[in-house]
Amino acid sequence: MPFVANFPLFCIVLTLAGSVTTSVLNGKNAFRLNTVIISLCLVMNFSLLVYLVTNPQQITYMMGHFPAPWGNETRFGPLEALVATVFCFVMLVSLISGKTDIFEDVKSDRVNIFYVMINLLMSSLLALVYTNDLFTAYVFVEINTLAACAVVMAKENGKTISATIRYLIMSLLGSGLFLMSIILLYDLTGHLLMVNIHESLVQLMSGGDYMFPVTIIIGLMSVGMAMKSALYPFHTWLSHAHGSATTASSSILSGLVLKGYIILLIKVYYRVIGIEIASQMKVLNILFIFGVFGMIIGSIDAIGETHIKRMIAFSSVAQMGYIYVGISLGTEAGFVAAVFHIIMHAITKPMLFSAAGGFAGASGHKYHFDQLKGAGYRNPIAAVAFVIGSLSMIGIPFFAGFGAKYYLSTAALTNPGKMWFVFLALAISTVLNAVYYIRALGCIFSREGVEDLARHKVSKSYTVGMSVFIVANIALGLFYQKIFDILSLGLQFF
Q: Which of 281, 157, 279 is nearest to 212 (CA)?
């Protein structure tokens, strides 16, 4: 077994250890240590990705070399390594660009606790990507939930506490449904490892039996993850959480936290149930309906919003719809399109939230459109990032979002029964995307009634972070075919 096979475990353990160490440091040192830890994780995951692309294979790693049920195991190929690399990259850049806001919005004696939670979040996200054990996944789902709640509540004011309670209630409902489905699966198969569960299910269902109970189990799991990832109609908590959280918290919540649950659900469909069985289930049709409505209603809600962060949050609801539509096609092309959209959204949406934070910082910490007039001139780097992010979300060629919509369109061709619904939803959603992003751009570049257009001083960390986000988005828009090829390769070993 190659040495790089140890890297997933190293990353999970390193971030867990980091959460302990940062708890005894002051805010600045906690930031430095956190930056080093996530940078190391980025390097390790990227090294693993390079190895698995050049040596295509699936690696199963038993922790401590103890087989189940006494031990745990990770299982990964190019797809998991790519997703983990993107997650580490986005986490690192989001924290760098949001450093100033973190130190301004969070009480000085609790900044280190913020980074404790960030390390726990990073550890849980990597575990969800790499684990091959459902109960381990549940444990890290709960760690992720609690850490995300703490990150949202970092400001510690009335609005953030209220938003956190909304998020916690909905998230715990989702976790409960997920746990129930695991219990039922264990009762049915006697296994917790994903591969072992799949083998048992194939045997049980070979005679045409057990389709109904398995459908119920997967339905519970799907609804649970839909709640946690803000799929319509379970999205009501999302805008409140984003509207009151720090800029970095919003970037991480939208770009990473929501995606971890979806990656886990994709693993369940593909690895636990099997694509052949999953495609026969009515659950996918229900997810398809929710996804289509999410694409349209999320965009409509964004049009009616005047708070820029809440507008971007409703845009995330629409993007969750895109991802779930890809999953619900029940084809390999649909799953690849969904994962590609996850990567695109993970890179683009934190950039938009960071840009919104930059506009607010240059406008007296105001977030409503009528208070942000001229903000694009006061913070040019945020303006450039917001323009590129908007064009990407609309789906303009040469930007990341174009590739995501293109692959979803081509994936729809593999499911003739849903094809025209996908095309129609894409067309309507794209037009609506253009409406609310163009309105936002018109506001931030408006000179009407604005006397002060002097440039606002921004930190070096913000400039560096936003510049990296801009380059990454354009690179993904130009070289999306290479990412798609890695995902297609990875799905063969998924």
A: 281
Question: Residues 275-313: pLDDT tens digits?
Answer: 777 777 778 888 899 999 988 998 888 888 888 888 888
Cβ-contact 437, 312 below 8 angstroms: no
**239-243, 397-401, 456-460: least confidently modelled range:** 239-243
* Interatomic CA distance for residues 342 and 73, integer angstroms: 25
How far apart (Å, rounded) are the C-alpha atoms in residues 45 and 455?
Answer: 39
Token duo for residue 114:
């913020």
CB 38 within 8 A of CB 18: no
Residues in contact with 256: Cβ distance below 8 Å, sequence separation at least 6, in sequence order: 87, 90, 91, 94, 121, 125, 346
| 171, 227 Cβ separation under 8 angstroms | yes
Instruction: Decide: 435 and 357 in contact? Cβ < 8 Å.
Output: no
pLDDT for the residue numbered 334: 87
Q: DSSP 3-state helix, strand, coil percentages of the chain (rounded to 5)?
A: 80, 5, 20
pLDDT in tens, 181-227: 899 888 888 888 888 888 888 887 776 677 788 888 888 888 888 88
Q: Rounded to whole angstroms, how far apart are CA atoms 180 and 178?
A: 5
Domain count, the chain: 1
Which amino acid makes up residue 65? H
Indicate the Cα dihedral angle 317, 160, 253, 289, nearest 10°: -20
Domain housing 48 = 3-491
Tokens of 196: 């072992």
Q: How far are the Cα atoms of 142, 199, 214, 278, 387 from residue 268, in angstroms, in the given order?
A: 17, 13, 12, 10, 37
Q: How far apart are CA 141 and CA 402, in angstroms?
A: 31
